[in-house]
Amino acid sequence: MTKNNVLNAWLEELNNHLEPEKIIFWTGEQNQYDDLANEMVQSGKAIRLNPTKRPRSLLFRSDPSDVARVEKRTFISTSDQATAGPTNNWISKDELMPLMWDLYKGSMKGRIMYVIPFSMGPIGLDMSRLGVEVTDSPYVALNMHIMTRTGNKVLEMIEKGKEFVKCLHSVGYPLKPGEEDLEWPCAPIEKKYITQFPEERMIWSYGSGYGGNALLGKKCFALRIASAIAKDEGWLAEHMLILKLTSPENKVKYITGAFPSACGKTNLAMINPTLENWKAETLGDDIAWLKIHEDGYMYAINPEAGFFGVTSGTSYKTNPTAMESIKSDTIFTNVALTDDGDVWWDGLSEAPNHLIDWHGNDWYKGSEIRPDHPNARFTAPLTNCPSLADEYETPVPISAILFGGRRPSTIPLIHQSYSFDHGIFIGSIMGSEITAAAIDENIGKVRRDPFAMLPFIGYNVSDYINHWKEIALQSTEDKLPKIFFVNWFRKDNGKFLWPGFGENSRVLKWICERCDNEENYLSTPIGLLPDIEKLDLKNLSISQEYLNKAFEVNKEEWLEEIESIRRYYYEIYSDNVPTVLKEQLSLLIQRFS
Question: Is 354 in the same domain as 498?
């Protein structure tokens, strides 16, 4: 066992209750990863991809019932519902703990219990936090090895007394003596539970082996539990990319950005600028931990060590950096398999004539059924990324925070908040318009996702907004990051007004200039917009009409937006709207009067 009495007692309790066949400690060494990967291939649970096409890479296929995060089975479990707030699924911990503990009884029979010490953030950094995941899934062990810093170095810190988050995971499929295992064991949907216990700094996940349901360092720890820790300790755990920008004059800026799903966050994190002599480097594509340091500036780290990205739509045209990042040493889940042992997914290239689909069946070109799952994923180390910044393990000072959404109208391409408080307001109203792509009676309405954190706030949303205000009070306006709202998705007659992708570097250049307080803006009721005459549009093919529409602030649309915001605030906060939001909404109304 270990030299930490708390960890020993927990592991002894779990060993007695879960009844695994044996226990293996994850050392974090590459040979342990390689040996387990080979075991998975030999057992038929993983496919080794063609080593000349995709070196040291694996393909897994999940059960069709276990393909994504299950938000309806994800819970914040506390003593009272007010702590969790109106946006979280809540069950009293007095009710849920006994229920789940009963499910865990004997759940690891016939299986190996992996004990994985891991660090969110670089090992030993004061902004990092430690955890131990106990799991019966070798798939989880392999993915945690990529997504976090694992093994003996972390265990040594825990043995010296460092606090750690207890993370318990079981696929919920015990094996009887002699029983053959499934390719992807899991429990039925009604028995799946992904539960955060913020008061205990603990995560229990049962019944799912997939992604964020099972890789407990990801959303469960790095956002839900970390956001609760951050509230108590005075920092922020956010659903944000981190990007380094270097101008031709060698000025460096670090920015973060929060966007709901399908709004281009990974593409922006790995942007290839079209502007001459501008350089963009990646620090993280999904999660940022932010803290005001003694100098009054806000610093960020990426707590993850890898990318867990959606394959669908990823190609050399849309994101060449991501494509380079998954050329080797990558785990793929639910993509299609080519005849030469490589992988394929929708949007990668023209489909070949024949594939093996994500169910393991033959697929032929022309079929109406897509061969990959829409939520198919890749898991790749950060160090695979060709644009990875040298500072990826160092806290970096943040100059700008970007919020965004997918809005075909109303919201201009880019605007800046008047203040940090106004920026909190902007973050609270971000979201995307519901489209006909989903069968939804609310088509045309805005599905708001404050700070892109709605599924990930580990406590009451009102307290979360107030916590942002408390963070602002730790510093001064001149040292806090400037806050912007971007909308790459504005349309006219169904066509996007802005070309996007690498051309977004033109917007990023304007943001950098604003961080240096350049006089390149126009004041409007919603915030500061670029002076189009001072925006770098050299060699950009866009009509003046489209340009004007991309930056239009239409009063009638914004009066409707204000009413939508009012309704939303009442739905979410009822009579408990945070003061900072009431004040900023009132100021917005005044600016339009």
Answer: no
